[in-house]
Design a protein that fits this description.
The protein contains 1 helix and 2 strands. With 101 residues, the protein is low in regular secondary structure. The longest helix is centred in the N-terminal third of the chain and has 15 residues, at 12-26. 2% of the residues are buried. The model is unreliable at 1-5 (pLDDT under 50).
């Protein structure tokens, strides 16, 4: 894959998903006579603002046992998750073009 840092849109996610589909089909992991086959990225996002965005955004999951005021730690874990929006394509490195309005 060549580096595409110009302002033209990239198809890296679509191309990669197609490569996975072809690979799994060639390897026989998806039977030739199968129907209603679907391939999609997990964790897809729908962005309602204008501009380009990655179709998939990694999610970081955090869990911890907080310290109690009287000493020791809480019995239950606190869980937090956060999604990260990419500013560049992770495959070709092209910066996504966005409106900064």
């Amino acid at each position: 894959m060549d580096t595409n840092t110009e302002n033209k849109a990239c198809n890296c996610f679509k191309d990669t998903l197609n490569r996975v589909k072809d690979h799994l089909t060639e390897q026989g992991k998806v039977p030739a006579d199968a129907i209603n086959i679907g391939f999609r990225w997990q964790g897809q996002s729908m962005i309602l603002t204008e501009g380009e965005y990655s179709p998939v955004n990694p999610k970081v999951e955090v869990e911890f046992q907080a310290a109690k005021k009287g000493g020791g730690h809480a019995r239950n874990k606190t869980k937090i998750d956060i999604s990260i929006m990419a500013t560049h394509c992770c495959y070709c490195g092209r910066e996504y073009q966005r409106n900064n309005a």
